[in-house]
């Protein structure tokens, strides 16, 4: 009597649902990002959600403010001005106060899209030697790595909802910044804008991208750290040096 021959059955890995992939990317990026280059189209849905929510929430944030408050806040961040300059700029800002929500929302959306495209191009260049991924795959990785920015904007929406008044400081947008959480530098300080630009969600994004470079592109940990960290260190290092 012969023993039955056990035939090997190919195993397939089920593609996680969209929500599951979002959660996995935030909590376990090394595993979640490994499959991104083989996926088709999900990054565009995620990008659309990010852009729509960001545009809508930034518009809502500015639109709720009274024109007088909005102008005062903008002048607060304008730096040192003479009385004549203050009145001149106040008049110009007041005339544009109604358009500020649209300008702010569109600027954020366009800037975000441009940043995504440029970052994907940078990663394409760094991966040229080993021909790791094509531009579209890098673009997808960058989109997924920016998930913390979506949480950032949702957090802003929650703060606006919980506020007693729609007239809130413009710096509320950077509620998770190094400045607001730790340094508390005043407006006008040489490093104020620098410290406002570094935030918890940026660090989270870099961590996801660092993991993605290893699991999806085959980079070593050292190379992934260099590729991820070099632009950030250059930008913020030179900014702090010449502030």
Automatic annotation (TrEMBL):
It comes from Rheinheimera tilapiae. This is YIP1 family protein. InterPro entries: Yip1_dom (IPR006977). Pfam families: Yip1. It is a multi-pass membrane protein. It is found in: Membrane. The keyword Transmembrane helix applies. Keywords: Membrane, Transmembrane, Transmembrane helix.
